[in-house]
Amino acid sequence: MVVVTLQRDKCIGCNYCVEMAPEQFAMSKKDGKSVLLRSQDKKGFHTIKSHDDVIYDNCEKASKACPVKIIDVKQV
Fold this sequence. Notes:
It contains 2 helices and 6 strands. The chain is an alpha+beta fold. The longest helix has 11 residues, at 55-65.
């Protein structure tokens, strides 16, 4: 299982996550910040849990590319 967490409040809107993992991330037209697609929000932390291990590599690339380090990716 792959767990991806985005701390959206700290996003600066650089768009790197969308470039690295377009299946999981999009940019909001309202505020220009990243959105973790199909995620649940819990106190500013947007999280998805997926049994699809294929998303791990792209999400890990997005995490490493993020200049403010607000994306966390774990394989559990």
